[in-house]
Amino acid sequence: MKTLSNNVSRRRFLQFGAYGLVAVPLAGLGWTTAAQAGMERLDPESDSAQALAYTHDAGTVDHPQFKEGSNCLNCMLYSDPNAKEWGPCAVFPGKHVAAEGWCTAWVAR
């Protein structure tokens, strides 16, 4: 009788372990999405944005380094090319930049 009780306990342990292995990666996806959703947009008036001549609209750029057709969405530093409106940028950590924006750190993708 005691052996049966131990087997059930082992089964339960393995069952919960398997559920845990599935739950951990799924929980991580939720945390990443929530963290990115909580990011605020880069203020073009901030010191870091002004230092790199950042603007939300590349169509209005009048800068000697600007290349026609360049914007954040086609920049190598734009971390999530699937983000079509606002997304993370390696130059401005913790902030979202406009996909149609531009700054002097632009690097062709």
From TrEMBL:
Name this polypeptide is given: High-potential iron-sulfur protein
Family: Belongs to the high-potential iron-sulfur protein (HiPIP) family.
An example molecular function term from Gene Ontology annotations: metal ion binding
GO term, biological process aspect, one: aerobic electron transport chain
Gene3D superfamilies: High potential iron-sulphur protein
Pfam short name (any one): HIPIP
Entry function: Specific class of high-redox-potential 4Fe-4S ferredoxins. Functions in anaerobic electron transport in most purple and in some other photosynthetic bacteria and in at least one genus (Paracoccus) of halophilic, denitrifying bacteria.
Domain High potential iron-sulfur proteins family profile: 36-109
Annotated organism of origin: Ectothiorhodospira haloalkaliphila
The entry's keywords: 4Fe-4S, Electron transport, Iron, Iron-sulfur, Membrane, Metal-binding, Transmembrane, Transmembrane helix, Transport
InterPro entries (UniProt xref): High_potential_FeS_prot (IPR000170), HIPIP_sf (IPR036369), TAT_signal (IPR006311)
Self-association and partners: Homodimer.
Bilayer-crossing regions: 12-31
